[in-house]
C-alpha cells in the first residue's frame, strides 16, 4: 500500500531529525545534593556574567555568591560601611606606602586546607597577571611590579609572572609595597578581588569552577549553571559572621517580574531586585516587608570634554547651567517611583559620613532653578552648536524614559528644543563609542562603588587619565589634592582633602550628578532580619527563618 | 521517494552554511562584546585585548567564521561567557523547550481540530459562532498578557499552579505555559480546520460517500477528516519550528530555562557562540519539520507522489 510505504519514509526522516536535534544532549546530573537542615533561605538570582573567580567578578550577581563563600582581610560593616578587620590580625605601615599584613592563624577553606599568607599572595598575583584575563585586575595596579605582569600596552607580553611588591615573610605574614603613598589602601581590602584562594584553585581550576571553594561563612553544595546554586553552612569557617540559618538556595530567574510573583505566592523568600513597575505597590503588596535604601551607585551624565567646544574657558558656566535646568525631584518621583534619590554630592549616602559622603556638598549647582540656569548658559556663551544629544544604550535598563524626562526639563528651561535622546542599540556598542571618544554630545555614565570610600568615587573618575574618566576631565588642582589625600596618614584629614577635590570637580562640572540609585528588596513572612549592605546585597548570614 | 528524501536532506547543507554565516555576520555587526563585560567601567586595554584574542575576535570576520565552522564539524560549538560549552547549554535547554513545544502542539492539535470540526460540521450554528468569538479573542490578546494574567490568577491569587516552573520541568508544570504558548496557533488551527471542513462538506466525493450509505462516523472520520487536515498539517508542522524559537516570552514569564532563555542571554551579552549555535539548531529543526510536512502530504493524500 502506498500510504504505508510513505509512512516508512516519514519515520526515517523523524529518526534523522531527532538525531540531529539531540546532538550534544549530554545530561549532567550535578543538580542533586541537598543542604542539611530545613531553615534554608530561598532567594532569587541571575546567572553571573563571568566564572565565579574573585578577581573576575565585577557585577552584583556573582558578587553575591563571593560575599557568602569568601572572607577577605577586611569586611565592610553592613550598616555603616566601615572597613573592619576580618581575616587580618593587623595591617601596619609607617610610611603609607609599605604595608606589613599579618593574617590570623587557624582559619581554613571549606576543603580543609589552611588559609595562609601565601593564599593571598598567590591570589593577588593570579588576579594581576594579564594572561589570566581577570577583569578586575586593575585593583592591583597600585602594587609595585604591576606594570611588569600587566603591561598597559596591549601588544607587549608580561615580563614577570609575579609582582615584585608582594613578599612572603612567613606562613602568616606578607608585605606589600605600593607604587605611591595611599593611606586609605587597607580599607580597600574588603573588596572580594582581594580574597584568598585555596591551593586547588591553581592546581585543579576546572574543579574550582564547577564548585568554588572559599573561606567564607557558607560553602557551595552544588552549582548548576543557568539554574541555581545551593549553599550550606561552612563548618570550617571560624570568623565572626556565622550564619543564623542553615543555608541559602539561589534560584535563577530570567524575569524579575516572575521572581516577584513567586515571592507573593510564597515560593521564594527573598527578591533583591523589585521590578520597576511594581515599586509603587510593593509596600502594600508585601505588607511592609520591602526595603528601599540608597546603594553605592551614582548616576551621572558626562560632557565630552575631549571635544574642544565643550572644554573652552567659560563653558563650566554652561555645564553648571545645564545641571541646574534638571528637575531631579520630579524625575525621581515620577519616573523612578522614589527608587532614586536626587544627588547632592559625587559619592553616595551608602558610604556614610565616615566614608566621605557629604550631603549638600554640590550646593546650588544641583538645585532646579530655571531662571538662573538660563542666565548661566547665556553668560557662558550658550550651548555649542545650539543643540545637543544625551546618548545611552537601548537594550537594558529603560534609560530612554529618564533621558527624555531630563531633556524635557532642559528644553522647558531653555524654551527651545535643544536636547534630544540618542539611543545606541546595545550596551557593548555604546561603551565602545564612549571609550573611543566617538560620542559628540553628552552621555550616560554611572559608577558603582568597589569599596565604600570617597577615594573610590574620585580617583578613577576625575583624576587625569583616571581608569574610568570617560569625560576625559583633567584639572591639576584635583590631581594634586588627590595625591595629597593619599599621602595623608590621618583618615579624617584624607577624607576632607578628597572633599576639597570633590568641590573643585563640582565647580568645573565635567559631569552632571543626577541621582543615587537605591537598592530594593522584598521578603516573605517566613524570614526575618533582612537587610541590605552598602553594596545592595542582602546580608544572608543574619537572616533567620521562622 | 527515498531519493527525494536524500535530495531534500542534501539541500539543507547550503541552507545551513548560508544561515550560519548570515547570523554570524549579524551578531558581529552588533559590535565588540568585550566592552560590555566590564559594565560601566572603562575596560583596561590590556585585559580587553587578551580576552579578544582568546575569543578569536582579533581575526578578520571570514577567518572567524571558518574557524567556527571547523569547530562545529568537530562537534565544538564554542563557549558561553560563563565558561560553559554551548553544547552543554543546548543539552539542557533543548529537551526543556522540546517538552514545552510538544505540550503546546498537543493542545493546539487536539483542541484546535476538535473545535474546528464542531464548528465546520454546522457552519453558522451556535458552536460555530461561539468558536469564532473565542478564537478572535485569543488572537487579539498578546501572549504576554495571557501569560502574566494566568500566572497571577492561578499562581499568586488562587495558588493552583506554581508561579515558576522548577528546574525539573515536569509535564504537569508545563500545562499552563504550554497552553499559553499554544494560544494563538490554537486559534488559527480552529479557523483552518473549520474552513476546510465546511468546504469539503460540499464536495462530490463526500456526497457520494453519504449516498452509498456509509455510516456517518466513517464519512466524517476518514473521508472528510483526511482531506481537510492537509492545510492543518502544513500549519502545525511549520509551527513546530516557530514554537521552539518563539517561546521566548512565555519562557521568561514562567522562568523556564529553555532555548528562549539561552538565546535571550546570548543576544544580551552578544555571545556569538551561543546565538549562532542555537539558531543553527533551530534552522535545522525548521528544515526537518518542513520535510516532515511534505512527506506527510503523501500519507494523507494518495494523489501526491514524490519521485
From TrEMBL, chain A:
Region (Disordered): 23-58
Protein name (Swiss-Prot/TrEMBL): Oligopeptide-binding protein OppA
MF (Gene Ontology): peptide transmembrane transporter activity
Record Gene3D superfamilies: Dipeptide-binding Protein, Domain 1, Dipeptide-binding Protein, Domain 3, Periplasmic binding protein-like II
GO aspect biological process, one term: peptide transport
Keyword ATP-binding set for record: no
Gene: oppA_2
SUPFAM superfamilies, A to Z: Periplasmic binding protein-like II
InterPro entries: Peptide/Ni-bd, SBP_5, SBP_5_dom
Alphabetical list of Pfam families matching this protein: SBP_bac_5
Positions of the Solute-binding protein family domain: 86-468
UniProt keyword list: Signal
Signal sequence, start to end: 1-22
Superkingdom classification of source: Bacteria
Automatic annotation (TrEMBL), chain B:
Compartmental location: Cell membrane
UniProt keyword annotations, A-Z: Cell membrane, Membrane, Transmembrane, Transmembrane helix, Transport
Domain of life where this protein originates: Bacteria
Membrane topology term: Multi-pass membrane protein
Transmembrane region(s): 12-31, 100-119, 131-154, 174-192, 232-254, 274-300
InterPro entries: BPD_transp_1_N, MetI-like, MetI-like_sf
GO CC, alphabetical: plasma membrane
Keyword Transport: yes
One Gene Ontology biological process: transmembrane transport
Domain ABC transmembrane type-1: 94-297
Classification via Pfam families: BPD_transp_1 (PF00528), BPD_transp_1_N (PF19300)
Database matches in PANTHER family: DIPEPTIDE TRANSPORT SYSTEM PERMEASE PROTEIN DPPB-RELATED (PTHR43163), DIPEPTIDE-TRANSPORT INTEGRAL MEMBRANE PROTEIN ABC TRANSPORTER DPPB-RELATED (PTHR43163:SF7)
Family classification: Belongs to the binding-protein-dependent transport system permease family.
UniProt name for this protein: Dipeptide transport system permease protein DppB
Source species: Streptomyces smaragdinus
